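Lecture 7 notes: from sequence to structure.

We start with a single chain of 186 residues. Read the sequence below before looking at the structure.
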Amino acid sequence: MTKIKKGPVTELKLEAEKLRSEVKNHKDEYMRSLAEFENFRRRKEREIQEFRTFANENLMSEIIPVLDNLERAIAHKDAVENNENLQKGFEIAYRQMKQVLEKFGLKEFSCLGKEFDPKTCEAISFIETDEQPKNTVVQELTKGYQYQDRVIRPARVIVAKPKSEKDLSKDETTAESQDEDKEKGA
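Now the structure, written as tokens:
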């Protein structure tokens, strides 16, 4: 058999056909990868939505016994002769609720006696006093709460501020007039 010699045009045609085949294969691979990625994206979106829906399931199942105890306390409120037992029941349910919430990462914090920090406190009011240093939290109206080290509710507080100069001079004047009144009366 004689070997037929191929010319440059035939070789180019064969090369072009080979390249077309490779391009078709790569295009098919690309389309499959694109479809797989789209399916992956949809599956992950479904999983995320399902996670969001059921993320608090454990928390809720832990809170149910607390609700049961509160319901029992409320149901027996009329049967209780003294409120002491009812109060104890509510205190037990309160402690149980706090334990459940702490188990899931909720922590309460207090700012009382500390320097005011706007990251953890919300100043509701100020009180003029010289008994506490400036910007010290002197009263806490509500405690603050953190969830996983993030403040989710700042403590609502009243903050000390020094008496104004006008008030100080008025107090001094009043004290001086009282001293003069005592001297006159003596």
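The chain has four helices and six strands. Keep this in mind for problem set 3.
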